[in-house]
């Protein structure tokens, strides 16, 4: 007895700091059962490397205040295992720290180990080195892949065990995932696929981590692994066995962006509708993918062409601010679901028809608790329905929640939460007080221009083309393909005004073409389509001409059957308009150089900064390609989150104090495409349904976490590929400039968003 009291006391005190989980996690057809208790769980995906440790406690807290019980994250293999057996758990990759922050917040954790994850993450999370281990084919039945996959999974599970982070050990982790949406792609892998699924499930279960394993979008997930649903709607999903609960691992509350494309939006009303429908139809674990999308720092974005921002129009925005009204509306929804939890978990639902597209699901076992969901699935017309002799107004495409079977506490289409106006307020770059330019008004820019072509010693030469990715092995975005041609004095074009045309074909992803050190033009693929053509008149002179083509990757493929074999780089180069017609250079002698000189010398890192001779100026030249800029600045004033405004720049990479901000590319979407003024939330959502930003840059601002700034002497380094105006770069502070209340018809005003 004494011991038990002591234990209770211990639980009470630790729960002030930690929650006292010590839970056994089992399941049946209705729900997860944690320590003997059934649970309805609202989960939120926050990917730890998509923000910084200084943001983690705030993000987790904002999720908790939003009515979330569980934090979910993938584990990012290629961020952790940099080369075979060489692990990284520093900084943004400090997984243990992240899970402990979740634990300290008194929340549960779902760990989706994968270790293939898709996730718009470079190479779907699988390390590029594994592609070059002989005999490896990703995600199917072959020894090298299975060896490294098992190895990494075991490493992560053991790390979590050592730190006592699984629920039966008192930790927060209640579920673990193996693989990711393999079901979609099994057909690409033939015979080996089935064996691989069975192997992956067994391998996972044999880890003995004491919590159930899940596989998402895997109808044939073997027992006891639970198959789960990923979609915009999962109310109609049923697991593959009557003993498994209905779990929704990915409800996408917005969508990701690709460079050069428009901006997708999913209205809060439709997100709420999908969640309410899921719980109406017996769902018990629901996860927002993403709840905070964050940032693809450095070269971590997948693709090709996924933007550096992974904002996702999630309930918490990229910068860590609650997105209103979405965050607030979902918070109210979560309250309504929790009010109904007891009834939902106690009985089986009875479905009643209330009209042609109207239905109720009633959870009533005759005891004191009763909850009901009334849905109007008509996407055009509002309806009045009668339920238990009472009339209810149901807006089209909405669900009302009645936690006592009488009173409506929430309707998914009635947004009672505040909406916010968010602005990016520009603030000029200020010379740092500790910089040599102290006292000067103008900033001092240090400039270094790369050679347009081979720098140092060439890596190799070859007749014809190599594959870009097989050559760089993703150590850099850049690969130079260079050759030279001799132009005879008697070429007609030298006498006339006309110019020969350079024609290039590439498997992807982007290209800048230089002739005799001059940029002639650029081209790139778009969307998920990486191949492209380049066609442009070029300036040639009599005699020898240097042709230097800078081929670029913009994030490696992150999903699809046999995706790791998709290549990039040049496949054809021709010059048209010469006396002899067309000159085909495709089988010429090409000389190659991997990466840039500045990258090779790490001139963006504090200890590499002095390895080249920078040229100082207060007026850097505009539109200069292949240029590195370094400037020492003060942090922007205040404490609002910061974005770097790159609208006046071309394309490249940026760093602050050696930390990788990422790829910038303010490429615009076409102004001729279709955009919406307002989005009708009614009817099934799909990513192209509500697009805005026609003719605007897909991404103008690039998140620079506050914790990367020092009080002074901050070194901002930019590598610009094609030319821009660095003097127009500013920091912008993200500010909530106004809150407006949408007065919901039926419900009182809801809580304010947390103030940070
Ligand atoms: C899913 C995948 C996620 C993510 C999502 C789209 O199919 O499992 O990892 O890529 O799509 O954001």
TrEMBL record:
Specify the domain of life of the species encoding this protein: Eukaryota
Q: Where in the cell is it found?
A: Secreted, Extracellular space, Apoplast
What residues does the Beta-galactosidase galactose-binding domain cover? 626-714
Q: Mind telling me which GO cellular component terms the entry cites?
A: apoplast; plant-type cell wall; vacuole
Task: Kindly give the InterPro entries that the UniProt entry links to this protein.
Answer: BetaGal_gal-bd (IPR048913), Galactose-bd-like_sf (IPR008979), GH (IPR017853), GHD (IPR041392), Gly_Hdrlase_35_cat (IPR031330), Glyco_hydro_35_CS (IPR019801), Glycoside_Hdrlase_35 (IPR001944)
Give the enzyme's main class according to its UniProt record, as a single word: hydrolase
**Domain Beta-galactosidase beta-sandwich as annotated: residue spans:** 360-415
Name the EC number(s). 3.2.1.23
Q: Please indicate if the UniProt record lists Metal-binding as a keyword.
A: no
Please list the reactions this protein catalyses: Hydrolysis of terminal non-reducing beta-D-galactose residues in beta-D-galactosides
UniProt keywords, alphabetically: Apoplast, Glycoprotein, Glycosidase, Hydrolase, Secreted, Signal
Q: Which residues form a coiled coil?
A: none
Q: Which BP terms does GO give this entry?
A: galactose catabolic process; plant-type cell wall modification
Q: Supply the Pfam families for this chain.
A: BetaGal_gal-bd, GHD, Glyco_hydro_35
Give the signal peptide as a residue range, or say none if absent: 1-22
Q: Which GO terms describe its molecular function?
A: beta-galactosidase activity
Domain named Glycoside hydrolase 35 catalytic is located at: 31-336
PANTHER family named among the record's database cross-references: BETA-GALACTOSIDASE RELATED
Hey, which family's this protein in? Answer: Belongs to the glycosyl hydrolase 35 family.
Q: What is this protein called?
A: Beta-galactosidase
Q: Which organism is it from?
A: Gossypium hirsutum
Gene that this sequence comes from: LOC107931214
